[in-house]
Amino acid sequence: MTTTSRTLKSCPSRPVYVVFVLGTCTNAIFPPDDSESEWVVRLSAMQQRVLVWLAAALASTLTQTGADAFAFHTRGGNGANHLATPSASGVDVIQFVMAKCPMTTSLHLDFARSVMAQPELRAIVNFTQSFVGGPVGEGPVNETNWMYCFHGPSECVGHATMLCARDINRGVPSVDPYAWFDMVTCMNCGGPGYNLTKCEGIEGVSYGTRKSIPEDAAACAESVGLPWAAIDECAKGSKGQALLKASHFETMKLFAAHGGYSPPGHGYRPPLIPNVWIDGTQYNNPLVPSLNPYSDLKSKVCAAYTGAKPSSCR
Question: Where are the alpha helices (DSSP H) in 170-278?
Answer without folding.
Answer: 179-188, 217-223, 228-236, 238-257
